[in-house]
Amino acid sequence: MKISKRKVVIVGCGLVGSSTAFSLVTQGICDEILMIDINKEKALGEVLDLRDSIQYLSHNVKVKVGTYADCSDADIVVITAGAPPKKGESRLDTLEMGIKICKSIVEPIMSSGFDGIFVVISNPVDIMAYYVYKLSGLPKNQVIGTGTALDSARLKNFIAQIVNVDPRSVHAYSMGEHGDSQMIPWSTVTIEGKQFDDVIQDNKALVGDVSLDELVMKTVKGGWEIYNRKGTTCYGIASTCAGIIKTIFQDENKIIPVSTLLEGEYGETEVFAGVPTILNRNGATDVLEIHMTDNELKRFKDSATLIKSYIKKIEELKI
Ligand code: NAD
């Protein structure tokens, strides 16, 4: 008899990778975590620290330093190697370095016989996820970028603060690029089914004047507000990634706005972009096509076009 274990490999043990591992460990989302980093001592340090947390948790998770050969029977490989953009750089500015790092990771993982699901965090995440999809040759459902899942969480927080409800009662997506061109289809935003616009109109005394443009700006700049103060962002993305992995392992069919390959949805092809996606144990199984206004659709397509222009640059890099 064989009971299969939920095995996750995390490549890149920096702040994002280690926070993701901690989130997985504390929530008991998997049974085994292997940590890989070009800096082997850093990987070992994180492993030893994570092991020390087990005693006071309600479950055991085996945490080890891993190798790419260990990916052969992994269920999920999280790619978070790379370095965040420096002050004044956009996420897109890290493309060349990110692609080089990604190639050095994905090729040995595929040589191991890996046939699980990649969850890509490294920026620029939509382009990196597309690259992992192409390089790995895996079916599209097996490559997921975290996309606008984190931006959507930020957006929900901002809306929740305005209307004074739990952010989990806000239904809102930021879509397109995990970057400056992302857009929010306001016509689809609801507070438990009530249109956000109606909530604003019916509660003028409570909420005052709400600027949607300002909310878009806050969502786009949300990461930088954190980065400029603490030099990194890690907990939000760690929780987002752990949430994606939990959805996969528990076969939840939960809809999360991750970056996935579009094959005609929203009129787009050959691009990874943040769209509401059904996630289950097969990975990204289906895209939810929400009805947007013409103007919203145009802004989504503009964002997809920008991502595509950077995808083209990968070929020019000749890596
Ligand atoms: P970090 O500098 O703290 O850690 C990066 C780690 O990657 C380091 O430990 C480094 O040694 C390792 N690394 C570098 N090259 C490697 C290679 N070839 N093989 C294995 N490991 C390698 O950076 P961080 O703050 O953890 O951020 C990591 C990535 O996550 C960045 O690309 C950042 O922009 C991205 N990020 C994405 C989101 C999102 O929403 N998608 C959010 C936050 C950060």
UniProtKB/TrEMBL annotation:
Allosterically activated by fructose 1,6-bisphosphate (FBP). Residues 148-316 form the Lactate/malate dehydrogenase C-terminal domain. Transmembrane segments: none annotated. One of its GO terms (molecular function) is L-lactate dehydrogenase (NAD+) activity. Its EC number is 1.1.1.27. GO terms for biological process: glycolytic process; lactate metabolic process. Residues 7-145 form the Lactate/malate dehydrogenase N-terminal domain. The active site is at H178 (proton acceptor). It is an enzyme of class 1 (oxidoreductase). Beta-D-fructose 1,6-bisphosphate binds at K156, H171. Homotetramer. Catalyzes the conversion of lactate to pyruvate. This is L-lactate dehydrogenase. It comes from Clostridium cellulovorans (strain ATCC 35296 / DSM 3052 / OCM 3 / 743B).
